[in-house]
Amino acid sequence: MSSLRVALNRRFVTGVVSRPSVGYVLPVWRSIGSQVRRYASQVTPKRNGTSTFKLALIGAGLGAASGTVYSIYGNWKDKSSHMEHQRIPPKILKELPDVRITKRFVNPNDNSDLNIILFQYQTCPFCCKVRAFLDYMGISYSVVEVDAVLRQDIKWSEQKKVPMILVQQGDGRYIQMTDSSAIISLLASYLNDKQTDVGDLAKFYPMISFFDDNDKKRLDILNKYFLMYQDKTPKHITRDTQEDERKWRTWADSHLVHLISPNCYRTLSEARETFEWFSKAGEWDIYFPKWERDLMVNVGAFAMWGISKMLKRRHGLSDDVRSHIYEALNKWTKELEKRKQKFMGGDRPNLADLSVFGVLNSMEGCEAFGDCMKNTKIGEWYNGVKKLVDKNRGNLVRRAELMPLAA
Fold first, then answer.
1. Can you tell me the distance from the alpha carbon of 6 to that of 13, in angstroms, rounded to the nearest whole number?
2. Known catalytic membership, residue 127
3. 326 belongs to the catalytic site
4. Which of 319, 323, 336, 320 has the alpha carbon at shortest distance from 375?
5. What is the pLDDT of residues 134-166, one digit of tens each?
6. pLDDT digits (tens, 9 = 90+) for 222-231
7. Known catalytic residue: 264?
8. I need a labelling partner for 85 at 20 to 30 A (CA). Which of 230, 277, 361, 393 fits?
9. Which residues in 319-353 are b (16+ Cβ under 10 Å) and which e?
10. How many CB atoms are closer than 10 A to CB 29?
11. Which domains does the chain have, with CATH numbers?
């Protein structure tokens, strides 16, 4: 709990506890006051309004009172608001919520035994990361396409962010996981050791609370870039390769992804063009009524155009936002050239490759993507990863009523 909150709470508690003693203190002050008035000069009080000093006292009193009330309300509303390093395990659902499966990718060669439902926005960079991993690994999964404006398909969940997955564990219950990097790390850990239940592995990725530099409580997933090999680390994996993979996965999340919105929504017309592409790529005209599709395009484009300006300032980008994404992509390709490798994982993509690919894949149909292909050397690497992802992806199954895989 912050020192300010502690001080306010102590002030409130002290005021309540010491109230009975006022009856004994008050006569003393009256006695002193009468002696002072005997020697004090006579002052004629002003009758034309309240003094500035009195207004200041009133303002200070109201400020202190409102601060105390707000502190009490905050503590009442969030019982754990003062707790740091609080661990919150992934939520377990006893039964599947009433969700609308929009499509399913089924790979006949999938031997993972995983039953996964992915809640997503088709062109969200973080959702694209998860899909790139699932497709490259040849995993079958169901998809719930969420309305980015109304979000009706996740109204059952306390977590309102995508991507989100529900994955069935051994006892039939469903684990709810959020955060793209944590989802990928969990599933990659399971694929390395299928003898360990995915529910047991999920316990390594709890949500943990901390306070940022502004003393605001934040939540993040612990270990989200770590794979839980335990005593079954593959022979070709070393500590150095793990650290390198984590470094570039972190770079994709902490830097590259923040360049997408300022570039895709650079102008209002470009923002609308981008959302029209989103509608086409996400098949919104199939999964949503026309009024809802138009709402998503028009409201979404205008909102993201405004948000992109805020993100540009937050991340210290110049007006020439294209130069920043060119610089980032050149950094990636120069590293590949330095290593003389086709992929960051060597002869085949690793999780860093799939993360960077997923982020870029989110803007494939946008003007910004075409500019990146023309003005950087990213195309050869990108198309190489895309070829493998498309090759391993399961067959698309789409029908009006889809039931979960286990049903």
1. 10
2. yes
3. no
4. 323
5. 999 999 999 999 887 778 888 888 888 999 999
6. 999 999 998 8
7. no
8. 230
9. eebbebbbebbeebbeebeeeeebbbbeeebbbbb
10. 9
11. 1-19+51-82 (no CATH), 88-397 (1.20.1050.10)
